[in-house]
Structures are given as C-alpha cells and as structure tokens.
Amino acid sequence: MVVNSIQKSIQKVLVVGSGLMGHGIGQTFALGGYQVTLNDLDEERLQRALDGIRRNLSLFSEEGLVTPGDAEAALGRIKLDVDLPRAAREVDLVVEATFEDLEGKRGVLRRLGELCPPRTLLASNTSGLSVNAMAPATGRADRFVVAHFWNPPHLIPLVEVVRGDNTAESTIQTMVAVLRSIGKVPVVVQKDVLGFVGNRLQYALFREALALVQNGVCTAEDVDTVVKMSFGRRLTTAGPLETADINGTDLFYSISQYLFPDLDASRVPHPFFKQLIEKGYVGVKVGKGFRDWPGGLADEIRQRRDRELIRWLKVDQESTRNE
Fold first, then answer.
1. Which CATH superfamily does the domain covering 198-292 fall into?
2. How far apart are CA 240 and CA 232, in angstroms?
3. Which residues contact 129 (CB under 8 A, 6 or more apart)?
4. Contacts for 322 with CB less than 8 Å, ≥ 6 apart
5. What sections of the chain are H helices per DSSP?
6. C-alpha–C-alpha distance, residues 124 and 129, integer Å
7. Residue-wise pLDDT tens for the chain (323 aa)?
8. What's the CA angle centered on 78, arms 72 and 80, to 5 degrees?
9. How would CATH label the architecture of 7-189?
10. How many other C-beta atoms lie within 10 A of the C-beta of residue 77?
C-alpha cells in the first residue's frame, strides 16, 4: 500500500492506452494499492483490457502470488473511462501507454499537460523514444519522465526511469519510490539515449543474430537455441559485467581484442531482414517470419515464457519475505 511521505502525494493513477502494455501497467498499480483509471478510445477496448486483467489476476491467485481477496480488491480499484478530460481531472500520476509513434505520443502528452492539475506527474511508457523530444509537449518538462515498463508489464520487474534534461530531481525520486511500492525494480537512466539501456543491449544482440543468419553461420532456430540454452539462462542470475568480473576482466579484454573487430556493425537493417518484410513474412500474425509458426505454437511459447516469469516472481517474493 501507499505508505511513505513521497508516495502519499501519489494516490490516483491514470493509464492512457489500455492495450498490451496499458492494462498490465494498470493491474500492477491496482495491486499496489493505487486507485487506477484506464482510458482508451472506446468501451470495447476497455472491456477487453479489464477481461485481460481478470485473467491475469486469476492466474496470480492460482499460483499463490496473491490471495483471492487481494485480487478482488485490486479489481475494485480499477475504473474504466473513455472521457479523457474527466479521467485526467484529479489524477496525481499519468502513465501514457499509447502506440509507439513520436507524433502521436506528443499529441496525447500535449493534451494531458492541458487537462491535468499542475501537480500531476506525467510519464511515457515508450520503449525507446527520446524523453527530450516529448517533454516540451507536456508544458511541464520538470514533471515529466519516461517510465519504460517491459512486456509483459505485470510479470517483468524492471522499469527504466529516464531523466530528461529538464526533469526535476524530485520527479525522479517520486517515480522511483512509487515504482518500488508496487514491487518494481526501477533503474534511473541518467542520459537521454534512444532505446535507453535495455533495448540498446537487446538490439545489439538482435543485430548480431541477424548477421549470423544472413551470413549462413546458422539458422534462425539455432540462434534462438544458443541464446536460450546457454547465456540466456545464466543472465537471470549474473549480468554481463558481473560475468566479466567473475571470469576475469583480463580474459574478457583478451577476447574483445580479436572478437570486437569481427562483430557486426551494420548501420542499417540487414538486406535479408528487409526482404522478409517485403515478402509479408511479418511473424506470428501471418504464420511466418524468421521461422514458420503453425497454429498454437506461439501460444505455447508465450505460456512457457509466462510460467517461467511467474516462477521468478515467486523466487523474488520469497526472497523479500526472508529479508
């Protein structure tokens, strides 16, 4: 629940955009004890979001992450509203979770800056757009941050809090405190860089994966197998720099001398990646991307992923109890 002095200033949260990210973010705030309003363009989208939250909370209850009573209480804290001016009227914190488009987000943030009380903090859940490019639209750059939740937001602990050039230190501190109060692990990104920390690392790996497949080193399936069955498992307990320290920075330096010059450094997407898109092979939704997707396989992988993430949430929960 909302307990310390910083968090007492944040009690009502508005999430604008109730899709894949928005409804998971809203669920997390509601479970943390906050009054949450979900806003979207129509009632149908909001109802789908609420149904998704119900399913998530039911799974949490089945897995022992929350009690049935806690799940019901969280649902009771969630309100749906298609009227943005009304929804924004008395809120303390807004998380914008609309489509990943800079101009679209600027338009939403501009409107929120006009509608919300002067005290309200604004945050964008962008995956990598510039905080400084969005801040002027809000009319309150000192009270604006990026709060990048990771998908699925109700299962992944990390939230990247990105500081803009004009973000007040009190805004950063409040956002970090609120995120911790809902069980998240916030990391403050001190400079405005595209992709922040996580997506820069993720896309560096993605670029090398594309190069390996394009150059015939291995198949797309083999790339995924190598990651999942080796360092992917290790990374859950030791990050890349921890691993370097454990194994010896001198060893990593020696390997870097011959490997860095040979790693892919393409400045544009690889040709075969573009060709894949041009052929219409855009992934699960059409049944083919880097690999074929027969019916049911994507759902099986998502369920396996979610079970593993839930297992880690249980580990985190147990660790917190024992502290």
1. N-(1-d-carboxylethyl)-l-norvaline Dehydrogenase; domain 2 (1.10.1040.10)
2. 11
3. 100, 102, 105, 146, 194
4. none
5. 20-31, 43-62, 68-76, 84-87, 102-115, 131-138, 169-181, 198-214, 220-228, 231-234, 240-247, 249-259, 271-278, 297-322
6. 9
7. 444 565 578 999 999 999 999 999 999 999 999 999 999 999 999 999 999 999 999 999 999 999 999 999 999 999 999 999 999 999 999 999 999 999 999 999 999 999 999 999 999 999 999 999 999 999 999 999 999 999 999 999 999 999 999 999 999 999 999 999 999 999 999 999 999 999 999 999 999 999 999 999 999 999 999 999 999 999 999 999 999 999 999 999 999 999 999 999 999 999 999 999 999 999 999 999 999 999 999 999 999 999 999 999 999 888 888 77
8. 135
9. 3-Layer(aba) Sandwich (3.40)
10. 19
Q: Where are the domains of the chain?
A: 7-189, 198-292
DSSP letters for 263-311: S---SS--HHHHHHHHTT--BGGGTBSSSB--TTHHHHHHHHHHHHHHH
Q: Please name the helix (run of DSSP H) or strand (run of DSSP E) that holds residue 162, with its range, or none.
A: strand 158-162
